[in-house]
Write a structure and sequence with these properties.
The complex is a heterodimer of chains A (338) and B (347).
Chain A lengths: L2 H13 L1 H5 L7 H20 L6 H9 L2 H15 L7 H17 L4 H25 L4 H19 L4 E2 L3 H8 L2 E3 L3 E3 L1 H19 L1 H11 L1 H6 L4 H27 L1 E2 L7 H11 L11 H21 L5 H25 L1
Antiparallel strand pairs in A: 1-4, 2-3
Helix pairs in contact in A: 1-10, 3-15, 5-10, 5-11, 5-13, 5-14, 5-15, 6-7, 6-8, 6-13, 7-8, 7-13, 9-13, 10-11, 11-13, 14-15, 15-16
Chain B lengths: L1 H25 L7 E3 L2 E3 L1 H24 L7 H18 L6 H29 L3 H20 L4 E2 L3 H8 L1 E2 L2 E2 H18 L3 H10 L1 H6 L4 H26 L2 E2 L8 H11 L11 H20 L7 H27 L4 H13 L1
Antiparallel strand pairs in B: 1-2, 3-6, 4-5
Classes of the chains: A mainly alpha (338), B mainly alpha (347).
InterPro entries (chain B): ABC_transp_permease
Subcellular location (chain B): Cell membrane
Pfam families (chain B): BPD_transp_2
Chain lengths: 338, 347
C-alpha cells in the first residue's frame, strides 16, 4: 500500500461524515481558513522559488514533523475536553533519553519501545488521576509533570547520547519510495496511521463523543450519565502515550537522546492545534485541522530555510502572528455563531 | 475571617520554615549574616537576591490571576526588556554614562507598558482567553527579543546599569530594595485603596462586577500593564546582573516559577481572593528549594525533580483542605458550584 493512498481517503473523509453530523458552516470556518492558508502559502512559495512546487517538498513537511503531528493529535484530545497538557515536550525528551540510554546498554529495541510507551502513558495516566481526583487545574499538574519529566532527563544524563542501534538507525535511513521519484519515511506512515485511528476514535466511538461533550459542557455531560471521570483521565493518558510515540519518532529522526531536546515543543503543539481550528475552551475542533496546523508551522520553517536571508527567530514571530490571526478569527466566528 | 487568612498562609509558611530549618541542620552557618566592605552577605541575602526577579514577576502575576487571568508572556517580556536596554546602551555614543543607563531603563519600561497594553487589549477588549492571548506574546516575544539583539548576546559595560542587578545600597543589594519597593507599592495601592477589592470583584464574577457599574475592562488593563512592568524590571535586573542580554535564555521558564509561587502562596487560579504576602512566601519557597539542593549536596541536575515533587506535595496538601472547607461551608456538592462559576465565564 502506498502512503499516498493513506493520504487521499483522509482528506476525503474530512468533508463527508463529519459535516453531516455537525451543522453550521461556522464550525468549519477556522479549519477551512487554515487549509486555505496552507494552500496559499504553498502557492506563494511556488511562485517565489521554482523548486518549491514539488511533491517532495510537500512530503518533507510530513517527514520533518512526524513527531509534532503525533503530539498535536494527543493535544487535540486534551484541548477538546477544555484541558491543556504542558508536559508533552518534556515527555518527548524523556522518551528519547530513556531509549538512547537503554539502547546503549544493549537492550532489545522492541522492549525499549514498549517500556517507553508504558512510561509515557503511565505519566499521563498519573497526571490525569491527579487532575480528576484532587481537582487541581490541568495547567498546574501538567506543569509539575513537565518539571518531573525534564528533571528525570537531567538525572539520566546531562550529555547527548548517540543512538547507534541497528533498528533505530535503519528506521532513520529507511525511505519508502512512492511513484514519481518521491519518498517518505516509515515514521510518516506511523504518524498518519495514528491520525487515522484518532479520527476514527474521535468521530465514531462513544469515547470520542464524550470528549466533545465534556468540552461543550462538563456538567451537562455528567448529568447525561456519560463517563466524564474516566474520559478525562484517559485523555491525559492518551496524550502521554502520544508524547512517548513522538519521542520515539524524534529518536528515529535525530538518532540521539538529549535532555534539552524538544524544549518549547509543547508550545508548537498547542499552536498547531489552535491554528488548526480547535477552540481552547474545548468542545470544537478536529484532529485533521491540527494536522494542517502542523503543516502550516512546517511550511513557515521551509520558507525561512528557502529564503536563506531570514533568521530563525522569524519563525517564532510568524507563528505568534499566525496564532493571533487565528485567535481573532475564532472570536469573530464565535460571536457570529452566538 | 482573620483566622481563615491565617489558615491560608499557614501551609506555605510552614513549608518555608521547614526548608530553612533543613538547611540550618545541614549547614550550621546558614542563617548567619556578615558584614564585608559595608555589604551584607549570607545565604539568606543570596536567596532574596536571586529570588528578586521571580518575586517581582510573581507579584504582577498575583494580580493578573486574581482577575481570573494568567500572563504567560512575562518570560518574553523579560527577554525584550533586557534586549532593548542592552541594545540601546551598546549602540549609544556614551555607553558608560548614567544618562544612557537611565534612558535604557526608560526604554525598557515604555516597551513593557506597550506590551502590557497589548495583552490587556486582547483580554479585555477582544475578549480572548488570557492563557491564549498571552501565549501569542510568549511565542512571538522571544523572537522579537532576538530580532533586537540580532541573535547575539549583547554585553554592555555601564556601572550605573550594573548596579540595578548587582549593586548595593544601604548595605543591601539594590535588587532586594527595588523588589521591596514594588511590593510596598502594590500592597498599598491594592489594600489601602479600593483597587484590591475591585480586582477581586472582577475575578470572582466579571459579569456581576460589570453590572454593578465597575469598569472591569480598565481593571483588567491595569493588571496586565502592571505585570508587564514588573517583568521588565525583572528583565533589567537579570540582564544587569550579568551585564548582557541573552534573548534566548533570559527569563526562560520564569513564568512557570512565578505561577508556581502564586499557587504555592495560596492564591487560587480560579481568581478572586489573592494574597501578595503569600506570593512572596511562595517565591521564597521556590528559591530556597534551589539553595537547599546545593546545601544538601544533591546533584544540581536533580533540582527539577525535587521541585516537581514539592509542587505536587504542596498542591495535594492544599487540594483536600479546600475541599473540606467548601463542604463545611456549604452542603451543596463542589462540582456543581464550580460548574456554575464556569458557565458564568462562558457568558
Amino acid at each position: 500500500m502506498s502512503p499516498l493512498s493513506t493520504l487521499t481517503p483522509l482528506t476525503v473523509k474530512k468533508s463527508s461524515p463529519a459535516r453531516n453530523r455537525l451543522r453550521g458552516g461556522a464550525r468549519y470556518a477556522p479549519t477551512l481558513a487554515t487549509v486555505g492558508l496552507f494552500i496559499a502559502m504553498f502557492a506563494v512559495g511556488a511562485g517565489m522559488y521554482p523548486s518549491f512546487l514539488s511533491g517532495q517538498v510537500f512530503l518533507n513537511l510530513f517527514i520533518d514533523n512526524t513527531f509534532l503531528i503525533v503530539l498535536a493529535v494527543g493535544m487535540t484530545f486534551v484541548i477538546l475536553t477544555g484541558g491543556i497538557d504542558l508536559s508533552v515536550g518534556a515527555v518527548v525528551a524523556l522518551s528519547m533519553m530513556v531509549s538512547a540510554t537503554l539502547l546503549q546498554q544493549g537492550w532489545n529495541p522492541g522492549a525499549v519501545i514498549v517500556l517507553v510507551l508504558l512510561i509515557g502513558g503511565g505519566l499521563g495516566l498519573l497526571m490525569g488521576l491527579v487532575i480528576q481526583y484532587f481537582d487541581i487545574q490541568p495547567f498546574i499538574v501538567t506543569l509539575a509533570g513537565m518539571f518531573l519529566a525534564r528533571g528525570l532527563c537531567y538525572v539520566i544524563s546531562l550529555d547527548s547520547i548517540p543512538v547507534t542501534e541497528g533498528f533505530f538507525t535503519g528506521m532513520a535511513q529507511a525511505q519508502i519510495p512512492l511513484p514519481g521519484d518521491l519518498f517518505v519515511s516509515p515514521g510518516v506512515l506511523l504518524a498518519l496511521g495514528i491520525v487515522t485511528v484518532a479520527f476514527f476514535v474521535l468521530h465514531h466511538t462513544r469515547f470520542g463523543r464524550t470528549v466533545y461533550a465534556i468540552g461543550g459542557n462538563e456538567h451537562s455531560a455528567m448529568l447525561m450519565g456519560l463517563p466524564v471521570k474516566a474520559t478525562k483521565i484517559l485523555v491525559y493518558a492518551l496524550s502521554g502515550l502520544c508524547s512517548a510515540i513522538a519521542g520515539i519518532l524524534f529518536s528515529f529522526y535525530s538518532l540521539s537522546g538529549y535532555s534539552l531536546a524538544a524544549q518549547g515543543m509543547e508550545l508548537d503543539a498547542i499552536a498547531a492545534v489552535v491554528i488548526g481550528g480547535t477552540l481552547l475552551t474545548g468542545g470544537t475542533g478536529y484532529v485533521l485541522g491540527s494536522v494542517v496546523g502542523v503543516l502550516v508551522l512546517g511550511i513557515v520553517q521551509t520558507f525561512i530555510a528557502y529564503d536563506g536571508t531570514l533568521s530563525s527567530w522569524w519563525t517564532k514571530i510568524v507563528i505568534g502572528g499566525l496564532l493571533l490571526v487565528f485567535i481573532l478569527l475564532q472570536r469573530l466566528f464565535a460571536r457570529k455563531a452566538g | 475571617m482573620k483566622s481563615l487568612l491565617k489558615h491560608r498562609l499557614a501551609w506555605p509558611v510552614i513549608a518555608l520554615a521547614a526548608l530553612l530549618l533543613l538547611n540550618q541542620v545541614f549547614k550550621p552557618d546558614f542563617m548567619s549574616l556578615r558584614m564585608q566592605d559595608g555589604h551584607l552577605y549570607g545565604s539568606l541575602i543570596d536567596i532574596m537576591r536571586n529570588g528578586a526577579p521571580t518575586i517581582l514577576i510573581a507579584l504582577g502575576m498575583t494580580l493578573v490571576i486574581a482577575t481570573r487571568g494568567i500572563d504567560l508572556s512575562v518570560g518574553a517580556v523579560v527577554a525584550i526588556a533586557g534586549a532593548a536596554s542592552c541594545a540601546y546602551i551598546a549602540a549609544s555614543p556614551e555607553p558608560g554614562s548614567p544618562v544612557t543607563a537611565a534612558t535604557a531603563v526608560l526604554i525598557a519600561v515604555v516597551a513593557a507598558l506597550a506590551l502590557g497594553v497589548w495583552n490587556g487589549f486582547l483580554v479585555s477588549t477582544i475578549g480572548v482567553q488570557p492563557i491564549i492571548a498571552t501565549l501569542v506574546l510568549m511565542t512571538a516575544g522571544r523572537g522579537v527579543a532576538q530580532l533586537i539583539t540580532g541573535g547575539q548576546i549583547v554585553s554592555v559595560s555601564n556601572d550605573s546599569y550594573k548596579s540595578i542587578g548587582a549593586g548595593y545600597l544601604f548595605t543591601l543589594p539594590v535588587s532586594i530594595l527595588i523588589t521591596a519597593a514594588v511590593f510596598a507599592l502594590a500592597a498599598v495601592l491594592t489594600r489601602r485603596t479600593a483597587l484590591g477589592t475591585l480586582i477581586e470583584a472582577v475575578g470572582i464574577n466579571p459579569v456581576a462586577s460589570r453590572l454593578a457599574g465597575l469598569r472591569a475592562r480598565n481593571i483588567i488593563w491595569i493588571v496586565y500593564v502592571f505585570s508587564a512592568v514588573c517583568a521588565a524590571i525583572a528583565g533589567l535586573m537579570i540582564s544587569s546582573n550579568v551585564t548582557a542580554a541573552d534573548a534566548n535564555n533570559a527569563g526562560l521558564y520564569i513564568e512557570m516559577d512565578a505561577i508556581l509561587a502564586v499557587v504555592i502562596g495560596g492564591t487560587s487560579l480560579a481568581g478572586g481572593r489573592y494574597t501578595l504576602v503569600g506570593t512572596v512566601v511562595g517565591a521564597f519557597i521556590i528559591q530556597t528549594l534551589t539553595t537547599t539542593v546545593y546545601t544538601l549536596g544533591i546533584p544540581p541536575e536533580v533540582t527539577l525533580v525535587f521541585k516537581a515533587l514539592v509542587v505536587i506535595t504542596v498542591c495535594l496538601l492544599q487540594a483536600p483542605k479546600a475541599r473540606n472547607l467548601l463542604s463545611r461551608l456549604k452542603a451543596a456538592p463542589k462540582p456543581a458550584a464550580q460548574e456554575a462559576a464556569k458557565e458564568k465565564v462562558a457568558i
